[in-house]
User: Fold this.
Amino acid sequence: MDVVHSAADMRARVCAWRRAGARIGFVPTMGNLHAGHLSLVELARKRADTVVASVFVNPAQFGPNEDFASYPRTLDADRAGLAAHGCDALFAPGVDEMYPFGVAEGVRVDVPKISEVLEGELRPGHFAGVATVVTKLFNLVQPDVAVFGQKDYQQLLVVRRMTMDLRLPIDIIAAPTRRESNGLAMSSRNQYLSSEERERAGVIYRALCAMREQWNAGRPIAAIESDARAVLEAAGSIPDYATIRRADDLSAPYPSDRCGAIALIAIRMGRARLIDNLLLDP
Ligand code: AMP
Assistant:
């Protein structure tokens, strides 16, 4: 597997692949790879001839009080994992390579509305940081297909919308969420949890499943949401939200809506902030 650090080198390789008629698949990540990330690479492998993964801890998507400095960086292990899962090239640029004019003075890509609710409301500027870096990465890698995890559902909607609006000829594919045996969605940030907290954090998935069950039984949304918050609090977490939204734009469902909904949860537990979701259609 090739490891590429510069934008110029990435472009040169992409040029050669394109000349050879290869279909390019792309998996952007922030590294510290786990089985969830690697399942995205496997999915890309099925849809493309050449697979590129990126590892870039993107400063623009972290708030001033967030974990940019302490975010786990494990490039050697990431390289080995990607090579073992059939990745053809790892793109691991430095910050200067991605933000030649600096983060504050660089061009920003903003995706209105969908970026403003839930995670966007709690993490101002987060999705502009995501949309900006994904646009730059798409521009460098020129993929035919890019794979994103459903775990970061709002991010997936932001990227889809951005891709459509900028008329980028890229298929955005959603990959299912990989979970630990207690239902906890795999995440680099699970490392911030003690083993006892990791066990307790299984409450997120249990709460999501209970929300789905109650939704399918026709219970009113407000009652479902307040039950979920109570369950999360009883397990010693602080819920930022536990909510049911329309899956297409994350707006509040009409009381008569019975399909196309999603339950989303964000909690704080110990040093970690964790998010997860579950589509509610039977
Ligand atoms: P990150 O490194 O956290 O930015 O994630 C990179 C990609 O992996 C994103 O598209 C995530 O949605 C996806 N991802 C993260 N965790 C999981 C998981 N548990 N299962 C599947 N995909 C995931």
In short: The longest strand covers residues 238-246. Residues 29-30, 36-37, 39-40, 148-149, 151-152, 175, 177-178, 185-188 surround adenosine monophosphate (CB under 6 Å).
